């Protein structure tokens, strides 16, 4: 009789068990990466309009723009764009750069804005999907 020595048999059992576990769980990496859901997200005084290509954030007199980001498998996304306060006549100067990052967890979106312009402070907003349409910019 050809028997496998005990340590090798134990390793074989573990490997077979791992193989079954992998086969039963399917894709271990989670859902695929995807673009941020299009539509309108609102909450905490913020409104984010997401189109097929761009995002527009309106927060009081603040206005940010960035390309529609890809949400990673872990729900996190990042994008560079612009952010400025728009009160009175709109400046013809280019808007200052800003970094946008966020986290999507089901129907909840956490969005952080990191402006690079000195007087503007970083901010974070929690939003949920809203009715269709675009966000109003009240301070034009």
**H/E element string?**
HEEEEEEEEEE
- The beta-strand count equals 10
Structural class: mainly beta
Instruction: Report the mean per-residue pLDDT as an integer.
Output: 80
Helical content stands at: 10-25%
What is the rounded Rg? 23 Å
Any overview of this molecule?
The chain is 14% helix and 43% strand. With 140 residues, the chain is mainly beta. The chain has a domain of 96 residues. The strands form 2 sheets. Strands 2-3-4-5-7-8-9-10 form an 8-stranded antiparallel beta barrel. The protein has a two-stranded antiparallel sheet with strand order 1-6. A hairpin with a 3-residue loop joins strand 3 and strand 4. About 16% of the residues have low confidence.
What order do the helices and strands come in, and which of them pair?
Blueprint lengths: L5 H20 L8 E2 L3 E5 L2 E5 L3 E6 L2 E6 L2 E2 L4 E10 L11 E9 L2 E8 L7 E7 L11
Key structural traits:
140 residues; mainly beta; eight-stranded antiparallel beta barrel; 14% helix; globular
In short:
By secondary structure, the chain is mainly beta.
């Amino acid at each position: 009789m050809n028997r496998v020595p005990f340590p090798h048999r134990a390793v074989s059992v573990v490997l077979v068990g791992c193989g079954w576990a992998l086969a039963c769980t399917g894709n271990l990496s989670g859902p695929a990466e995807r673009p941020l859901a299009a539509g309108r997200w609102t909450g905490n005084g913020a409104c984010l309009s997401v189109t097929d290509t761009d995002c527009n954030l309106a927060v009081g007199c603040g206005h940010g723009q960035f390309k529609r980001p890809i949400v990673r498998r872990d729900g996190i996304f990042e994008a560079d764009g612009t952010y400025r306060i728009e009160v009175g006549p709109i400046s013809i100067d280019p808007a200052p750069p800003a970094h946008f990052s966020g986290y999507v967890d089901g129907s909840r979106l956490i969005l952080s804005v990191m402006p690079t312009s000195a007087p503007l402070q970083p901010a974070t907003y929690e939003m949920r999907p809203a009715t269709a349409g675009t966000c109003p910019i009240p301070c034009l």
